[in-house]
Amino acid sequence: MIPMIDLKKQFSEIKGEVFEVLTEILESTQYILGPKVLELEQKIAQYHGVSEAIGVASGTDALHLAAEALGIGEGDEVITTPFTFFATAEAIFYTGATPVFVDVEPDTMNLDPAKIEVKITERTKAIMPVHIFGHPADMDMIGKIAKKHNLRIIEDCAQSFGAEISGKKTGSFGDAGCFSFYPSKNLGAFGDGGMVLLQDHSVADDIRQLRNHGSKGAYKHEKIGFNSRLDEMQAGILLVKFRRIDEYNAKRRERAALYNEFLPDSVVRPVERPGMKHVYHQYTLRSTKRDEIQKVLREKNISSVVYYPVPLHLQEAVSFLGYKKGDFPVAEEASEKALSLPIYPELPEEAVKEIAAIIKNV
């Protein structure tokens, strides 16, 4: 079988270092907000060129706590994309605010800046772009719109660790950059985990307080908070993988280049806009024969996944928002045609060629 990602192979290459760091943590008995969390926060902040990084329990919590700390709440609106994982909208709902969807760009499938301003109202407080599949959203245009209308920007970087625009990394453009360390991510833990990046020290202090039951320490609780702390063991594992993240991303890009070379012209390949660095969390093509391609791949024991078969505005859970089919045609078309293929640093080149040949045959 060719899987979407081979975590067993990755683990076999780093298990000595993983066991070493886990033994160190177990012997220290510092399991919650210990030195490994602090070290990871410092290194990731430096990597992204920001002053603050706060480890939390998941990528969803990163989005939620960032929104809470930035003052988004009941009655507010946050503009975002309907073509993303449900957690993006969930995090907005958790604050009491309402997600307002805007259609996506035909080439990148990211939030379309040209369609944002028409959706801005007096209740709009923020824009939450998602760097979908590892390709950066157009942060230049989104930043200009946010500045013009005095809006916050919360970047959903769950799929874009290491992606860049003109050498500047995603997560460093907005008021907050929110990352997921879910095991399948480019930088993945052995469980859940997340991180928020910021430049504003006061907002960072609020998130640190919120992640720890609203307490600054010593059992004094100034506000109602949450239990959302990045686990010390996960931080230790992430430090091992973080040393390799640029190598991992480079290998993903090499596999993507091979797909681009060998896939037929009849499928729409992912783009990489000039000045942007795609880190290919997913390699996602589009085709009118998507379902047929997936069926043949499955018959040949090759994994593939449809992200996302139902865009957010058509999900039953948000039906009360009143959206209907046809409201966001570009996102809907992407949901009908998109297919993600196996891509990970250890994927053999011959496997890429084999998959491409099968698709060409279909």
Blueprint (SSEs and pairs):
Blueprint: H1 7-28, H2 35-48, E1 52-56, H3 59-69, E2 77-80, H4 87-94, E3 98-101, E4 124-128, H5 139-149, E5 152-156, E6 164-165, E7 168-169, E8 176-180, E9 194-198, H6 201-211, E10 215-217, E11 220-221, H7 232-242, H8 245-262, E12 276-277, E13 283-286, H9 290-299, H10 329-337, E14 338-341, H11 349-361
Parallel strand pairs: 2-3, 2-4, 4-5, 5-8
Antiparallel strand pairs: 1-9, 6-7, 6-12, 8-9, 10-11, 13-14
Helix pairs in contact: 1-7, 2-7, 3-4, 3-6, 8-11
* Main sheet attributes: strand count, strand direction, barrel closure: 7 strands, mixed
Strand arrangement across the biggest beta sheet: 1-9-8-5-4-2-3
From the 3D coordinates, which CATH architecture of the largest domain would you assign?
3-Layer(aba) Sandwich
Rg over alpha carbons: 20 Å
Structural class: alpha/beta
The CATH homologous superfamily name of the largest domain equals: Type I PLP-dependent aspartate aminotransferase-like (Major domain)
Global mean pLDDT: 98
Please bin the fraction of helical residues.
Answer: 25-40%
Features:
Aspartate Aminotransferase, domain 2, seven-stranded mixed sheet, 362 residues, three-stranded antiparallel sheet
Describe the fold and architecture:
By secondary structure, this protein is of the alpha/beta class. The protein folds into 2 domains: 7-242, 3-Layer(aba) Sandwich (Aspartate Aminotransferase, domain 2); 245-361, Aspartate Aminotransferase, domain 1. It has 11 helices and 14 strands. The strands form 4 sheets. A 7-stranded mixed β-sheet has the order 1-9-8-5-4-2-3, with helices on both faces. It has a 3-stranded antiparallel β-sheet with strand order 7-6-12, with no helix packed on it. α1 packs across α7 and α3 (59-69) runs parallel beside α4.
